[in-house]
Structures are given as C-alpha cells and as structure tokens.
Amino acid sequence: MGKMPDNGRDDANRRPQGASAAMRDLKDWFIREVLPLESALMQFLRQNWRDKADIADLRQDVYVRVFEAAQKQIPDTAKPFVLTTARNLLIDRVRRERVIPIETVADLETLGAASNDVSVDRALIARDALAKLQAALGKLPPHCREAILLRKVEGLSRGEIAQRMGVTERTVNRHIAEGMRALADMLYSEAAELRRKS
Amino acid sequence: MTDSQTATMVEEQAADWLERMDRGDWSEADQSQLDAWLAEAPAHTVALWRLDGAWSFADRLAALRRPSLHETLMARGRRVLPVIAKAAAGVALIAVVGAGATYLVPKPAEKTFATEVGGRKTLELPDGSRIELNTGTVLRLADDGAQRKVWLDKGEAFFDIKHDASRPFVVITAGHRITDLGTKFVVREAADSLEVTLVEGRARFESADTAIKPQLAFLSPGDVVVATATSMDVTRKSQKDLSAELGWRRGVLIFQHTTLAEAAAEFNRYNTQRLVIGDEKTASLQINGTFKNDDAASFAGTARAVFGLRVEKRGDEIVLSQ
User: Fold this and answer.
1) Using 50, 70 and 90 to split pLDDT, how confident is the model at B108?
2) What is the chain A residue with the closest CA to B217?
3) Which of B193, B213, B241 represents a domain boundary (last residue)?
4) pLDDT tens profile A8-65
5) B263 with B255: CB under 8 angstroms?
C-alpha cells in the first residue's frame, strides 16, 4: 500500500467537512487510489492532447467524471478506470469540437494500448513521496515555505505566524493557500510540472 | 465548456477554503458556506479533496518538531540577513527536512490497548495527554507521530487532552468522531449507543450519518451527547452527576436514585460474577450511595439490609429478589 495515500486519507478526513459516511469513503478512496495516479494521468494527457493549455482542465474533467461514476459505485481497480475515463473524455472532446487533427486520430487509435503501458509503481510513489515533499518545500517561494513550516512543524496559529514573519494575517492566508496548491502539484503531478509553471 | 482559466480558478478557491478550514476556528456558519460552494459543482469537491490530500500528507512535517529548526527559523530574520545568507538558510532548512526523513517512514500505524472486565489502565501520551481506560475496553492509538487519533472500539475511556490547534485530537467510535478543542471528556460505547460527556473545555461531535440531525454539535462542559445508529441527542448533566459519572476513575460506582436494575447493569460491567434481579418489583427499587465497583457481594448485602431482599448465590450469579 502506498504510504502517502494511506496516511493522507485519515488526516484529510479529520478536517471539518461535515460529510456523510459514504462521502468520506469516497474521499478516502479518491485520495488513496486516484490521486497517486495523477502523474500517469498527466503523462497520458500530454501524450494524447496537442494543446498543452487544456491539460489542467482536462485533468479536472477526468476527476469530475471519476468522482461522479464512483458515487454510484467505487470501482475495484482505480488505474484502468481512471485511464479509460481519460480516454473517453478525449474522444468526446474530439467528437464534440469537430476539430480532428490527424495526429489526434492516430493517437486515439493507439490509446487502448497506451493506457496499459503507463506503469504506476505504487511502492515507488510511496517512497518518492517523502523526497517529493522535501523537493516541493525547496521549490516553494521562501515566504510560502516559511509559512508552511511554521504551521506544520511549529504548529503555530495564523496570528503567531503573522507575528513571526512580520506580515499581516491576510498575507499568511495567501502564502498558505499558495503553498497548498504547489504542494499538491509537486506530490501528485510530476516534479517537472512545477518547474515548467514557474 | 471549460476554458483554460476555469480549473485554475476552482483550484484557487479550493485552496482558500482549505486554508480557512486549517485555521482551527471553523464554525457551523463556515460549514454551511462551504457546503453551498461544494454543491455548486462536482469540480469543487474534487479540487478540494486533491489539495486536502496533499496538505494532510504534509502533516508528517510535524515529526520534525525540534528546537534546532525553531532556532533556524528564528535566525532567518528577513530584515536582518542579507539575501545570500537567506538563501543559505533555505538550503539548511531543506537539509533538516531531509535528515528528518527517517522519522517520517511510517511504522505500523496503530497500537492497541485493552482492559479486562474489572480492569483499569492509564495511558500517558508523549504530548502530555492522558487516556484512562475503564473496564472491558479496547482502544487503538494512531502511532505515526504525525497525527493524534484514537479509535474506541469498545468500552469507556476518559480523555484529558493537551490542545494543539495544528494537530487536533480525534476520537473515532462507531463511525462518529469527536474532535477536541482543548478538553477533558468521557466516551462510553454501549451495545446500541454511544455517550460522550464533556467535563472541561470544548469539543466537537460529528455524527457519521447524514440522516442524523443535527449532524454536528459543539459541546460545552456538562453536555452529554447520546448517539445511536439513527439519532443524536444533546442533554446537560449537573456537576454532581458528572462526578458520579467519573466515579470509575476512583474504582467506585456512585448511585443517586438509581434503580437496582440499572445498578446491577453497572456492576456487571466490572465483574464476571453477575448481579441478577429476580423480579420487577425489586428491579424498580431505588438506591443511593457509593460502592466499590469490584464488590458486587457487599452491594447485595447492603440491598438486603436496606430493602429486606433475598440474596441467593447461584454459581456465578447473585440473585436479588423479594
């Protein structure tokens, strides 16, 4: 079992959500099984979609479809389910937009094979997770990193962090929110992703 | 259809929500606003889960808590140090994180503690919190250093929790969860219900089932939540009742206008020798007093003396009747 998703699951649910038991199970599953596939999903999307500007939205749409399907029933194995969902989404997009570049058609024909080729070694992800956490912190803007360390390591409140950093509480909020997004990208997508963005 | 901005905008909003949740002053009003936002689109839920998964994962940074890091951060006073020194400090910080990684490899996630019938046990946690297990109790403790969490599988326990806003202490039992906000409280699990009594401080009780209204309760001292699979009720107890409730911590049962049926049920939690009430009339008699919880025989003797009952020993049972 991947260490990252297993532990993330319970911690995540302890935050106030007011969710039903079914919703909590779904969230557990999503964090434990789906999110660790994100780097594979991103690789798949990048390989099979020409406009890189669409990738973030495609990823979100895949997650929404996975979420909606899993609300009815959580699939036994996440990986084929997520990648098939991604493939179907791309096919729907191509059909609806009626813009079918030659390359896309070619890609779509090999998609079945491609979706089996993306290998996800969960143990590797778990091992890498700690290294990624460190790497992610290292790549954050210094003020973000400091705010996150003060929160997570020192356990300081927002007010205390503001005082320590000599900034307003609103600024602390911004640093933390920014840090949350960067951490998710680093942990779930490729490390290369963040570098490309910044 | 989604344009290239949308996913990013959703993610920004999700991060704002998560940051608000993380502050530790979450209210019911916040919750309903969040619920409204989540109801707008499923994309909101998945975006929040994604960030939450990563942010919670970063909780294991707490394992790095140590003075040297504190000093490192203090030494980084931004206005004092020149830019180059600041960059160097940043590198040192990452090295600290790297050095701490050995701590972070999770061990088997839980430890189990149990008491026999009639047993009692006190757990002292590294953070200074204390948990006292009553008779016939099974409790599991998350043991990865990053989270403070216990599962009460069976029985009753008293919690005296050192508050830490960044690491709430969570008790999970029968699918319900209690989150401390700086607290002393008692959780008792019976066959078909769960009772949570707040002695001191504040706590949040969250029911597992959305069918139960209200799903969420903020408890003040003296509040008692009784939750079953299908209902949840909050009542109040007087200080006197509270201390009676906590008698077990001193090994006693305290009865105030307690029926013999209830008293017998209490004794039977602590002893293998069972008290049995032989008839309806005896069952409804009321008794006051403080009794050692491991001595059903002397309780039976008192009942005989006070009410003129017949006491009969049959194997492992003591039968009280008219």
Assistant:
1) very low
2) A18
3) B241
4) 334 454 455 445 778 888 998 999 889 989 988 998 888 888 788 888 999 999 999 9
5) yes
- Inter-chain CB proximity B59 and A137 less than 8 Å: no
CB B161 within 8 A of CB B133: no
B246 is a domain residue: no
Same domain membership, residue B134 and residue B231: yes
Of B21, B49, B57, the CB nearest to A27: B49
Q: Do the Cβ atoms of B53 and A155 come within 8 Å?
A: no
Closest CA of chain B from A109, distance in Å: 25
- Read off the CATH number of the domain in which B127 is found: 2.60.120.1440
Per-residue pLDDT of B261-300, as tens digits, reads: 999 999 998 998 899 999 999 999 888 888 888 888 888 8
Q: Which domains does chain A have, with CATH numbers?
A: 3-120 (no CATH), 123-197 (1.10.10.10)
CA gap A38, A28 in Å, rounded: 16
C-alpha closest to that of A43 among A120, A138, A129, A113? A120
pLDDT over 50 (residue A119):
no
The rounded distance, in Å, linking the Cα atoms of A168 and A148 is 15
ipTM of the complex: 0.79
Which tokens go with B142? 């998350």
- The answer to whether A134 contacts B208, with C-beta atoms less than 8 Å apart, is no
Domain that holds residue B299: 251-321
Q: Kindly state whether residues B192 and B291 are assigned to the same domain.
A: no
Q: Where are the alpha helices (DSSP H) in A98-168?
A: 102-109, 111-117, 122-139, 142-152, 158-165
Task: Kindly state the greatest CA–CA separation across chain B.
Answer: 89
Facing A155 at nearest CB: one of B10, B109, B164: B164
Whether residues A16 and B21 touch (CB distance < 8 A) is answered with yes
The pLDDT score that the predictor gives to residue B143 is: 64
Are A176 and B19 within 8 A, CB to CB? yes
- Distance separating alpha carbons of residues A176 and B6, to the nearest angstrom: 21
Total domain count, chain B: 3
Question: Choosing among A153, A156, A174, A187, which should be mutated to test the B contact, i.e. which has the most B CBs within 10 A?
Answer: A153
